[in-house]
Recover the amino acids of this structure.
């Protein structure tokens, strides 16, 4: 689900996953596991720890905000586009775990960040190319 | 009817066309002659690609004497640069990879 509420942008993804929260928690917090499904990183589940995620299409800078082992993890997520916060919530269910990811951000001063931001173009086009390769 | 982003994806899927569009974004207004000089394909081929870009609303043409100038229309990209949609696609595919990893893990 994607929606815009005034100046706040919000993306929420929720999925029931047939694995215990403890196992999902490891995949969300251990660098070598994070690398396998998200991006290369120097993540540590420690409050205030600063980390970066990097991929071919760009990099993301973050800082850990909140940790509740096996239940909740929150960090900042800043890319070339805008600053936002990513919050993971794990809720045990009969069949496994309900995993919820909520990303909340704010529009940059310029609504269309790409205008005049020439440095952003190669990145955007590289990301577009990657997206095209995936949808084929 | 096709969704706007489908038209944009199809239009920009061709590497020569994407390179022409990127040049117009990067360097601003250009003549067909100037674009052809760096495109590596013939002028009729460049004109044809520009015609497709124009139909998708990605470029605009302007006649000046015997030259035709083209410029990029960045507004046309709005459906693709919509942050929420981009991030939703990004996280959906990350969730897929996360589930695949969990199946492999001990």
């Amino acid at each position: 689900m994607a929606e815009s509420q005034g100046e706040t942008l919000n993306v929420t993804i929720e999925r029931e996953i047939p694995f215990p929260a403890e196992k999902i928690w490891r995949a969300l917090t251990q660098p070598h596991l994070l690398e396998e499904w998200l991006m290369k990183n120097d993540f540590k589940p420690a409050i205030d720890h600063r980390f970066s995620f990097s991929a071919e299409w760009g990099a993301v800078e973050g800082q850990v905000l909140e940790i509740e082992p096996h239940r909740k993890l929150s960090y900042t997520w800043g890319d070339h586009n805008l600053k936002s916060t990513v919050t993971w919530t794990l809720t045990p269910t009969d069949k496994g775990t309900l995993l919820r990811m909520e990303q909340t951000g704010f529009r940059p001063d310029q609504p269309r960040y790409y205008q005049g931001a020439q440095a952003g173009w190669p990145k955007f086009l590289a990301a577009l190319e990657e997206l095209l390769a995936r949808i084929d | 009817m096709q969704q706007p982003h489908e038209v944009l994806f199809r239009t920009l899927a061709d590497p020569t066309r994407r390179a022409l569009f990127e040049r117009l974004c990067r360097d601003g207004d250009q003549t067909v002659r100037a674009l052809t000089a760096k495109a590596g394909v013939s002028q009729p081929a460049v004109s044809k690609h520009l015609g497709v870009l124009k139909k998708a609303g990605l470029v605009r043409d302007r006649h000046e004497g015997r030259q035709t100038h083209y410029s990029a229309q960045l507004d046309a990209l709005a459906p693709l640069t919509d942050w929420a949609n981009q991030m939703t696609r990004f996280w959906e595919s990350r969730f897929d990879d996360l589930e695949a990893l969990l199946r492999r893990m001990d």
Observations:
- The longest strand of chain B covers residues 59-64.
- Chain B has one domain: 4-104.
